[in-house]
Amino acid sequence: MKHALSLPLVAALCGRSTLTLGTRQDVAFATPGADGALCTVKDRQGEVLATVTTPGSARLPKSRKEVHTTCQKEGYRTATATVASSYSRRSMVQPLLGYLVDGVSGAMWNYPAKVNIDLTRLDSQPAANQPAWQRD
Q1: Distance CA 94, CA 15 (A)
Q2: The pTM of the whole model exceeds 0.70
Q3: What is the enclosing helix (H) or strand (E) of 102?
Q4: What confidence tens digit (pLDDT) does each residue in 55-112 have?
Q5: β pairing state of 114-116 and 24-30
C-alpha cells in the first residue's frame, strides 16, 4: 500500500517545469523608437517560429537552443539579435526522471521575458560625419 501511494507522488514531482511552466513561453519584442517593425524569430535551422509586429509578443517553444530575431522597418536598417535561453530554477530540485522529462520537453529553459532590438534610421549619420551646415 505504501508503494501504491508513493508512485503518484513521484510521478507528480517528475517533470516539474513541464507541469508548472509549460513547454512554450511568451516573449515580448520591442524596437524602441521604431514601433511597427516586423520581426521574424527563427531557430538555428532557419525555421520560422513566430512573426510579430513591435511592440508585441510571440509564444515560442522553449529550448536550450538560441533563437535568431530579424527586425525590419521602412526607413531603418535591418537589425538582428540572438536570444539565448537560460536554465529555469524550478528545474533544479526534482528526481532524476524529472530532468529527463523537462530536458526533452524544453521546459527547463527560459528565454528573457522582453527583448529590445535597436533599429537605426537609414538617414542618420554620426555628427562628425555630417556636413557643417547639417549640424546643430
Answers
A1: 8
A2: no
A3: helix 96-105
A4: 999 999 888 789 999 999 999 999 999 998 776 655 455 544 454 454 555 566 788 8
A5: parallel
The three cell numbers locating residue 89: 530554477
d(CA 69, CA 81): 5
> How crowded is residue 126: how many other Cβ atoms within 10 Å of its Cβ?
6
> What domains sit in the chain, N to C, each tagged with a CATH number?
2-120 (2.60.40)
Pairing of strands 67-72, 114-116: unpaired
| Separation between Cα atoms, residue 74 and residue 14, nearest integer Å | 48
Grid cell locating 66: 538560441
> How far is 63 from 48, CA to CA, in rounded Å?
15
The CA–CA distances, whole Å, from 95 to 5, 17, 100 equal 17, 12, 9
Cell 513541464 belongs to: 18
Nearest to 54 by CA among 32, 85, 76, 78: 32
